[in-house]
């Protein structure tokens, strides 16, 4: 029957795992008549919070007898002087025992479940005699590393005699200090004797930086004979009791060290002590840090000798004894004040596993998942960079409330996704300077602080996109990103970066990408399209991939928005079309090439002859076709073209092939191009045609080029070619042309141009 009952009890607590042991103090000391408080930690699972807690005493047979438990049981020995309190929120329960006696010394266990069968932890309790009850001996308890002042009374008869303090060793004593100035070498710079005055009849000895070796019996003495005044002193050096610290695997812990204002300007340290080993410095204010704590430890100095040490991403090997202290060399040394902790690392943890090292290629990106307590979903979240040169300082780079450090703008974003205990940090445009350690922090549960080491390696980013582009204000804009085959099944996206994250934008799949050499049709181009660019569109854009809620690689592109100025292409089009094209003698070409300068309708131009050179070029700043009046242009050009055609027919025999040195003749605001050389020195023509043609004649290009721009290129000498004609025919034709031109000019001046 008892076995069946035991089996039923065991079935009640099946989920209490042996992988999550109870943790408590290994040794507890006190003095009879006083009280003691013992705190025990347990894994904070749902069942453990409601499971029976107990405190039992171990017997010689190994059996553990329950003295008090959380279900209300209290033994007769503890009736009225003990209680057990459970704190399920913090995963602890506390056993308080008062009115201690020497009989309470022994070995105990605190645990969960059934005594001797559930989770438990061994605790040693030592109750010593009250030193205040030792007769004529005055007891001075003092903490290690602190200061003690010993008062030594004397009678008036010995007020003028030598005063001293001696320490008992074996069968004798040795002098520690006296009023003549002697100080033992073991107490040099630590012990001082002072006489308060003859009226008080007391002298005092102050001993600083108490060491463990200072503990023992002392004798205060005034005088050096049989009538000397003597008093016995018991100096008890108390080692600091370790404070228990309970941390889950991958969580964080903080050691708050209070050493007092007397060591405010002394170097501080934190060391770790393994069983049977020396205390090895983990970190100190002189710049030393243990290699296995690199990147995951912070030293935070405060006022009056107070400082904190924060250790993140706890490992199993971090468990053990830790000592903080102050010492000029930043090393543990006897006689200096210290504070002690006992750290236990629980391997059964709710904190999810995350990579301790992430790698990214130069110019590429990395994505870091940061865990946080799901209860802190609404709390601010941060990402900071651990700086070794600043005693492990960690300045913030980005936070969920919208802060991004200036040099990380466009490169760094903190995203709330995927949520429910994890947020994402993305850093792109990686450089060698980004290598280092980074911390994920919230202003909620500090135990969830985690660290990651970033390594930047050589390589090529997988995503391909331009780094800097320019979009024109008011015009459409398209930005493309190339994704390799390995991201075929991933979600692709474009987003616009801001200091509050990266807002997703609509994208367009443009089909296969040819940007990858060894890739098939699964490589893609995904584009971002802006129909009409505005100034607000300027900034950083990211393209990237996602696998569900998990973010992957990204690449950043900076888009500058500018006003489009008349480009070089437009300028070339304006310059290529002359403001006033030469009027060709052939009527068929006249209408396409004659584009008059509008200024010709405002002011007259002087007539130039062949010796005076060509007329002044038209203003190139005015585009062709924009003259003052289209009607005036048409009514003037058409009659002038007919007159010119008649003149060409008349002198066609003289001008057969070359029309060089074309000069413009302006007749009262009307301009045309004729060959004056045909009429030069008509007396020399005699019976030959074109004998007066100038060998320097220029010809306007039939291709429509500006005659002024191409004149120098087309210069060439032409031999005069004789053509049979008569001098009389040439004179008659020239006279007829001049008369017609004069009549036409007079009519235009008096009546104005008419509609053609």
TrEMBL record:
Any single Pfam family the record assigns to this protein: V-set
Biased composition (Low complexity): 616-625
Entry superkingdom: Eukaryota
A Gene Ontology term for the protein's cellular component: receptor complex
Keyword flag Metal-binding: no
TM segment ranges: 632-654
Subcellular locations according to the entry: Cell membrane; Secreted
Position of the signal peptide: 1-18
A molecular-function term among this protein's GO annotations: polymeric immunoglobulin receptor activity
Biological processes per GO annotation: detection of chemical stimulus involved in sensory perception of bitter taste; epidermal growth factor receptor signaling pathway; immunoglobulin transcytosis in epithelial cells mediated by polymeric immunoglobulin receptor; receptor clustering
Keyword entries, A-Z: Cell membrane, Disulfide bond, Glycoprotein, Immunoglobulin domain, Membrane, Secreted, Signal, Transmembrane, Transmembrane helix
Start-end of Basic and acidic residues biased regions: 680-689, 704-728
Function summary: Through its N-linked glycans ensures anchoring of secretory IgA (sIgA) molecules to mucus lining the epithelial surface to neutralize extracellular pathogens. On its own (free form) may act as a non-specific microbial scavenger to prevent pathogen interaction with epithelial cells.
Protein name per the record: Polymeric immunoglobulin receptor
Source organism of this protein record: Moschus moschiferus (Siberian musk deer)
